[in-house]
Amino acid sequence: MDFTKLIDIRRSASNFLKEVKMTESDLKPIFDDLKLTPSAFNLQHTEYVVVLDEEMKEKVRLAASGQFKVHSASAVILVLADRYAYRQTERLHEGMRDLGIITDFELNKMVQENSQFYEEKGEQFMKEDAIRNASLSSMMFMLSAKNRGWDTCPMIGFDQDKIRELLHVPNTHEVVLMITIGKEKISSRRLRGYRKPVDEFVKFIK
Fold first, then answer.
1. Taking the mean position of all CA atoms in its chain, how far away is CA 84?
2. Of residues 145, 125, 143, the one with CA closest to residue 133
């Protein structure tokens, strides 16, 4: 699909067609696209939990203040971010070492530099950076989903603690976003909200 058309037709769906089901095979191509999402130092902070089971989906709905779109969606996606992704530097890059693209020295230097960078910045920075990187991935997810014919809605209205407990999210991870996905119920669609003109949100320094 033409990219300009894609960003124009992507909408945050307020409701979905309940009878439409999704399977892992529907979702895996979307996640394949996400592998190319940029991340700081290629640390790939973002992880996803996909809820397809109807019983679990209803429990997630309760943790999201009973919002109907969670009920009608074909799946509910929880976007997680690893605050300590820098600790995976060696594992993520050792393949490049094995292929001769980088040396042992370069890999060890990368591990040392990433550890020093994050540990000197501290816990608050680690949290913020994890959320930043997961946000990049989340937007890519929604664009990829639309490109493959699926509609989505990003959501922040949920109880973090309840979601952590339900889905066994480790304390090392942030619960960044909930995304509902399915086929939009067009009859529930509202007019698109006001969008600022470019001059209101862009400043050119000449």
1. 17
2. 125
Per-residue pLDDT of the chain (206 residues; tens, 9 = 90+): 899 999 999 999 999 999 999 999 999 999 999 999 999 999 999 999 999 999 999 999 999 999 999 999 999 999 999 999 999 999 999 999 999 999 999 999 999 999 999 999 999 999 999 999 999 999 999 999 999 999 999 999 999 999 999 999 999 999 999 999 999 999 888 888 899 999 999 999 99
pTM (2 decimals)? 0.94
Amino acid type, 77 = I
